[in-house]
Write a structure and sequence with these properties.
The chain has 233 residues and is of the alpha/beta class. It contains eight helices and ten strands. The strands form three sheets. The chain has a six-stranded mixed beta sheet. The protein is globular, with a radius of gyration of 18 Å. The protein starts with a strand and ends with a strand. 33% of the residues are buried.
């Protein structure tokens, strides 16, 4: 069984979804510490000057708190401002009328727990993208929560009888192949191939949120882009 584990991200880029599609089971890693300046509550979208941040404001977020103990700022303007920005930015895109209601539903979800909010949004996006990978929540898996890093990942693999663990290419410096092999687990990494599509008449801006891809591309085209990756050990 192929397994992947990643923190929940705010409308992540396509490589995140390529990873999910490449495995049998995907674990939303919600019981690790919040990372300031990461992708948990922000991502990049198109702008007239190239790209800009799209940010979900949080309430007293701290690196000392777990993701599933982190709350979204409870102000009605917080989420509505995101919707308004997206409407202005993508109004004239080819798939706006199809995609915007889905994005709006995700953004305006009244849930204030960050982990639950992101998991809800991810499930809606996966349905739109026709990705049928099994999704599980890390905090609901019985395991030794005193373990850290690679040791915790290996234990989750063992608990779920995974014989192959796939990670984004950024994890090459975090995990040792021999340690996984000793537990009967094959460690592999996934790397997105260069992806390009038409964004209005501007110079192409890569690695934006999945929102950008959805606004400019048909479902069939996105399905093709989801296969544009390579695996390595």
């Amino acid at each position: 069984m192929k397994l992947a584990i990643m923190q929940p991200y705010f409308f992540p880029y396509i490589g995140y979804f390529q990873l999910i599609k490449a495995v049998d089971t995907f674990i939303i890693y919600d019981d690790v510490n919040y990372i300031k300046g990461g992708w948990l509550n922000r991502n990049r979208i198109l702008s007239e000057k190239g790209w800009r941040w799209l940010t979900l404001k949080l309430s007293k977020a701290s690196v000392h708190n777990l993701i599933n103990k982190t709350e979204i700022w409870d102000d009605p303007t917080n989420k509505q401002q995101i919707v308004d920005i997206l409407k202005i930015t993508y109004l004239k895109t080819p798939y706006y009328s199809e995609v915007m209601p889905i994005i709006q539903k995700i953004v305006l979800n009244p849930e204030l727990n960050l982990a639950k909010y992101l998991a809800d949004g991810l499930n809606i996006l996966l349905k739109y993208l026709n990705i049928q990978t099994k999704i599980m929540i890390s905090s609901k898996i019985k395991k030794n929560n005193h373990l850290k890093g690679q040791d915790k990942v290996i234990e989750i693999c063992q608990k779920l009888s995974a014989d192959e663990y796939i990670n984004a290419q950024g994890g090459t410096s975090l995990y040792l192949k021999k340690d996984f092999n000793e537990k009967g687990i094959t460690l592999r990494f996934i790397k997105s191939k260069p992806i390009q599509y038409q964004q209005f008449t501007n110079e192409f801006i890569p690695e934006l949120s999945i929102i950008d891809i959805m606004m400019f591309n048909s479902k069939q085209k996105i399905s093709d882009l989801l296969s544009e990756y390579e695996m390595f050990q």
